[in-house]
Every structure is written in C-alpha cells, then in structure tokens.
Design brief:
Layout (H helix, E strand, L loop, with lengths): L6 E12 L2 E12 L3 E5 L6 H9 L6 E6 L2 E2 L10 E4 L11 H11 L4 H14 L15 H13 L5 E5 L7 H18 L2 E6 L2 H7 L2 E6 L2 E7 H6 L4 H6 L5 E6 L4 E4 L2 E4 L8 E5 L6 E3 L9 E11 L4 E7 L10 E5 L10 E5 L6 E2 L7
Parallel strand pairs: 3-8, 3-9, 6-7, 7-8
Antiparallel strand pairs: 1-2, 1-4, 4-5, 9-10, 11-12, 11-14, 12-13, 14-20, 15-19, 16-17, 16-19, 17-18
Helix pairs in contact: 2-3, 2-4, 3-4
Length: 361
Amino acid sequence: MTDQINVGLLCGGVSKTFGNHKALIDVSLSVNKGEIVTILGPSGCGKTTLLRIIAGLELPDNGFVFLDSEDITRVPASKRPINTVFQSYALFPHLDVFSNVAFGLQARKTPKSDIVLKVRNILALVRLDGMEKRFPHELSGGQKQRVALARALVNEPKILLLDEPMSALDAHLRSQVQEELRTIQKKLGTTFILVTHDQNEAKRLSNHLAVMHEGKIIQFGTTEEVFTKPANKFVAEFLGATNFIDASRVSDTVYDTHYGPMLVNDKPNWNNGKIIIWPERIQIRADAVPGENNWFSGKVMDRLFNGDGVDILLVKDSDDDVPEKPILVKAKPDFQVESGQRLGVFFPPEHLVPLDKHTLN
C-alpha cells in the first residue's frame, strides 16, 4: 500500500469518535508529493478533525497515517515534519515578526547564523522583508497571515497543513493571498493540504479535491473531475450547481425532460434520474431552433449583474404560471436582455452531467 513512489501521505481507514459523535468514519486519503490537496465540506463534516490527526494533534480510534512510507500514526506532533497554519494565525503578540518566524528554529537549537539566514530568506519569499521588527498589532490581516505562513515554512516541513487560513480576510485580500500561496508552493515544492468550505478557493488552488460530508470523503479526484462530474446531488449542490433537471431515458442517448428531448454524451446508469448543467455552460441566443434536441424557448424572469457577468433567470415559455425553480444562465457582462424577453436556450450535450446517485446515498 505504500509502494507508490509519488505518494507522500497515506491515510487509511481513519475513524474518530468524540462521545456519541462520529467525527470521522473509515476515511482514506492519498496525497502525492508536491501538490495542493483541498479538503472541502460544510462545517462539522470532519475536515478539521482529519487535519488534526494528520498533524498528530489527535489520535485516531482506528486506521493509520503514513508519511513517505513510514507509519506516523502514533508519532507525537512535535516529532512529525508537518506544520500547520491555523485560522487565527496564533502569532505571539509579544514577539516581533523576526522572532515569531524564528521561534521554531530556536526551539530546535538551530545555530544563530542559520536562523538569521533562513528567516531572512523566508520573509523575502512571503514579501515581508523590511518588516522584521514589527509586532503583530502593527500588521494588516494579510501580513499576519504571511507571518504565520513564514513561521510554518521556515522549518522546511514535508507537509504544510492550512486550516481555513484565509477565512478572516476580505474578498480582495483573500484572492491576493490565494495567488501568493500558489506561487510559494510552486517555488518550494512543499505538499500543501488545505481545509476550506470555500468552493472558489478550492477551485483556484487545488490539484486534487476531497469533498467531505458527515465524517466521510464522498468524492475524491482532480479538481476538474470533481467540479465537472460531481458524484451525487450533495456534491453538486455544495459545489454550487443550481440547474437540476429530471430526466427519463427514451433511447440510448436521448432523454426526455421538462425542457424537451435532450442528447446526453455521458450515458447515465439509470432510466430515471437527474442531470445537471453549470450556468456558464448554457448557450443563449435570440431564438430557439425548432424541433432540435437540447433547445427550448425560455422567458426571462430576471437579470442580475454579479460583478463578473450577468445572471439570467428564465423559465420555459409555457411555465408562466408554474412556480418552478427557473434555469440559471451566466452570460457575459455586455449581454443585453430584459425581463419578459424570450430567448433560445441550448444545453450542449457534452456539458450535461448525469448524477449517478440522485441522493447522497
């Protein structure tokens, strides 16, 4: 199980219970060296507990944790080449930036000359050179986050764990720090494991993505695979899918839906189920193509500018009096449309994704 050369971290059958609460249930996770893996899920799903077990801050009730083919399941946190950046940053308020970053090296009795060199290098990498003498209360939120990152990385860990490290930052600063994190990780080649509930953050940063729910990993794959082909309704909804379409098989490739017959490239493993399509994948134009599969005529219910483009809510022409959830389409910012206008709507067959499971189970 540990003979894969590129596997850095391997968790197998990890379970953890607190009282009557099953925080983790038979969780297995494989992380390759030098990549960013994100553990994504709602609050209380077990992602932070899994991170703490990897860090050695909690012991599993069952299962194992291997790092570079070595069993570290019972190795104390202080003996693991793993560091953590917490949501609160956990900086020492009475120490300046230099001393905060140097703390771990000093605890290991690293020679003073080496400490100075390592701290200066890592502060330059996170763009904090010249701020060595500042104290935490003199720093912005983004600067505090970079100090915490530098303090973790200066020890040259094999794995860096990040527990919601950007949740306290505003949207603009969060985006900036995400880019910096990606750049730093590429330069150092350190394995990053990020815990977040932010889908956009996961999409921007991750090579692989694990979606958790109620103590279990319910889907794991490349970020592209998970976002484009969610395994079930829970994953799809959590990742932001809004367009769920009931479908029934008519032939090998054609499915009957409320919006007319649909060609689906990916064959579902069911006769009756649900397919999804992401709002940005839907095509719209002035008129539908009569009699063509995957086309229908829709009436615009609302148009909302979202900053990056236009959200268009529409229903099938014949649904004026049906209180159904409308289809959401994302268009470019300059797309001109008004409420009440009729548009042709096209669902590209290659972007219709069948859900293998209609429910979480």
